[in-house]
């Protein structure tokens, strides 16, 4: 009798453990936007040792030089004169301007490269992530698909975030949107999938690239 009781208790404990594991496996992983960026070594500051004014001036000079390289700014243009003035000013400060610009451009290129990368370890996982919903497909206030972005006003009032900071959400069932850029939690299966969506503006439309898609099963209002 005692052996039978022990066997029954052991079986019950095993079922409990297995059942608990099954429940845990169905629990979504809560993500932050930082999780969507694959790990990488920190970048070296190309402007180390410069004061705030010099940093701003190098940034301005780099932007002007880029437009000059594209043929958008030519001799006689006011910005061409700004290029000369900034260059001379920074040289007078004792800076190797061309070296600083070269280092700055190398880091900017590396940032652009990293902005295109996605975290492949998240592919196919059940996740829960907060963000702001920018509707793409609507019927009245019912939203069937939307862009999930990390900050208010993304893609409309300011340049769009990097592709690894935008998620295209397709819902199994539409939800009632309360406002543009509504803060929400979204639960679903995340995929590392590059897509292009069309966002309609008041004065036209534009294409947006995203690095992730999410088959959304649940949308909840975001609360701290």
Give the arrangement of secondary structure elements:
Elements lengths: L1 H24 L3 E2 L21 H18 L8 H15 L4 H19 L10 E14 L2 E8 L17 E10 L5 E20 L2 E18 L3
Parallel strand pairs: 1-2, 4-6
Antiparallel strand pairs: 2-3, 2-5, 3-4, 5-6
Helix pairs in contact: 2-3, 2-4
Summarize the structure.
It is built from four helices and six strands.
List key phrases describing it.
single chain; 224 residues; alpha/beta; OB fold (Dihydrolipoamide Acetyltransferase, E2P); 2 domains; five-stranded mixed barrel; disordered N terminus
Describe the structure.
The chain is α/β, with parallel strands linked by helices and 224 residues long. It has two domains: 52-115, no CATH class; 120-221, Protein of unknown function (DUF3299) (OB fold (Dihydrolipoamide Acetyltransferase, E2P), Beta Barrel). It is built from four helices and six strands, in the order αβαααβββββ. It has helices at 2-25, 52-69, 78-92, 97-115, and strands at residues 29-30, 126-139, 142-149, 167-176, 182-201, 204-221. It is elongated, with a radius of gyration of 26 Å. The protein starts with a helix and ends with a strand. Residues 1-24 have low confidence and may be disordered.
């Amino acid at each position: 009798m005692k052996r039978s009781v022990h066997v029954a208790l052991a079986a019950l404990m095993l079922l409990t453990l297995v059942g608990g594991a099954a429940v845990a496996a169905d629990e979504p992983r809560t993500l932050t936007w930082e999780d969507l960026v694959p790990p990488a070594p920190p970048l070296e500051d190309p402007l180390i040792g410069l004061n705030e004014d010099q940093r701003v001036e190098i940034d301005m000079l780099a932007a002007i030089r880029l437009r000059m390289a594209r043929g958008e700014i030519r001799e006689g243009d006011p910005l061409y004169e700004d290029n000369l003035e900034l260059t001379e000013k920074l040289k007078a400060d004792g800076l190797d301007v061309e070296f600083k610009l070269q280092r700055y451009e190398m880091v900017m290129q590396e940032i652009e490269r990293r902005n295109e990368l996605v975290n492949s370890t998240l592919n196919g996982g059940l996740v829960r992530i907060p963000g702001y919903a920018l509707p793409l497909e609507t019927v009245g206030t019912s939203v069937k698909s939307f862009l999930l972005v990390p900050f208010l006003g993304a893609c409309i009032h300011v340049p769009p975030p990097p592709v690894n900071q935008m998620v295209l959400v397709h819902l199994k069932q539409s939800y009632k949107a309360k406002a543009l850029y509504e803060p929400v939690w979204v639960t679903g299966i995340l995929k590392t999938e590059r897509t292009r969506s069309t966002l309609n503006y008041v004065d036209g439309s534009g294409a947006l690239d995203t690095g992730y898609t999410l088959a959304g099963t649940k949308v909840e209002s975001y609360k701290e």
